[in-house]
Design brief:
It contains four helices and no strands. It has 109 residues and is mainly alpha-helical.
Length: 109
């Protein structure tokens, strides 16, 4: 059984590490907010990530099978909703809902 000094030291070290780990992101973000590179990436990365996700999801799609209609129609709805409303959440939810609905009803086996 450890003595009281050992237990107090362990609690203090644990508290200090916990506090430092919680404060570190805020300390690291402060200088980055003024960075030109971070501002540039914040405007370009969302579209780039979406393109990468689309390519990744559609890369193995068998274009000769009828089940290709589910992801392609979901993609069309997602793009259409985004061009119409300019709301990423609405676009993603609409495309996902259509894909789930078509896949679970029309192409369910």
């Amino acid at each position: 059984m450890p003595d009281a000094r050992h237990a107090i030291a362990a609690v203090l070290v644990t508290a200090a590490v916990t506090w430092a780990l919680r404060a570190l992101p805020f300390a690291a973000l402060a200088p980055l907010r003024a960075s030109i590179t971070v501002r540039y990436l914040s405007t370009r990365m969302p579209a780039g990530i979406m393109v990468i996700l689309v390519v990744y999801c559609l890369r193995d799609l068998p274009l000769t099978q009828p089940r290709v209609l589910a992801p392609l129609s979901a993609l069309a709805v997602t793009v259409g909703l985004h061009l119409w409303r300019r709301n990423a959440l609405l676009s993603i939810l609409g495309g996902t809902a259509l894909h789930v609905a078509v896949t679970s009803t029309v192409f369910a086996h």
